[in-house]
Amino acid sequence: MEYVLIVISAIFVNNIVLSQFLGICPFLGVSKKISTGIGMTGAVTFVMVIATIVTFFLQKAVLEPFGVGYLQTISFILVIASLVQLVEIILKKVSPPLYQALGVFLPLITTNCAILGVAIMTIQKDFNIVESVVFAIANAIGFGLALITFAGIREQLDLMDIPKGMKGTPIALVVAGLLALAFMGFAGIV
Amino acid sequence: MNQWNNFSKGFFKENAVFTLLLGMCPTLGVTSSAIDGLGMGLATTFVLVMSNLVVALIKNFIPDKVRIPSFIVVIATFVTIVEMTMQAYVPALFDSLGLFIPLIVVNCLVLGRAEAFASKNNLGSSVIDGLGMGLGFSMALTMLGSIRELLGSGKLFGTIIYPEDYGMLVFVLAPGAFIALGYLIAFINQVKKEA
Asked: What family does this belong to (chain A) (predicted)?
């Protein structure tokens, strides 16, 4: 039951993009087409789950026993940056089709604050390892849901007659605001 | 004169938020009040200036291939310093900024300036560039924070302007951040076109 709560809360109520403001850069940057949105979601899901598991053990096995909790930020970002490189190299060798699909998005992920954000939130919420993995997957789904919905709207938006001054980023931000307003309807479920 | 241009470009011509669209996460996440926006802006400015300074000093010793990881370590060091200092001296601000303080590490603005400017220019101009960019970012965050605070809760920097009951609550919540920033960018674009 508690897993269901974690999942619903992460996907709908506290959506990582629309209510926590993490991962806005890819949300605005790669949301022009649905297909790139799907690719980005795949890459984020992949890295987010692996990064959360690795940083979880780093925190519990290294930082806490040695009492160096203040190194959390610096060690997490280093681990995530090298992990992304590692994933890129392994994917290239093991599964070229998957690399073809996700390759261009991987370098962008290092500076995606959603990854580091989820890793830090997992520690702050004091989850165990299973809860952490569930939390990471749910957040990745929430990210995908917001990104793909937004990409769908933006594809339609290209055909619309928009006031000149609002074209491009401004109208995209207002649409994102309305989407966030819709997601606020989920508040109070959990 | 040249240095002045270098400093002032961060405010208008190459403003991080309005023109380059960098560092959007903290821009939207911490601007529910003007004071939070200003605090976040100044914390980012400190990290930006210091990381530009160090990167400009060590740029000749770093092999090209490990450039980005080295920059990230430098940035993360200063973020940790800011984090601990704020926790000690301004705990209230530290609590309201929360997760976004460690996330300065992944603010594309900071890494972007290190890579695009400090790794190619000398010490003096790098520091001035960092200061200009950082203060421009603070200005944008403070503007957005003031607008949201004024419309949402009828206050400005905590001073009551009109009774809170007449405020539009949505502007201090998540959707208001997107909508206010959207209109602000449209407005700035218009001003720029006329200028």
From this structure: Belongs to the NqrDE/RnfAE family.
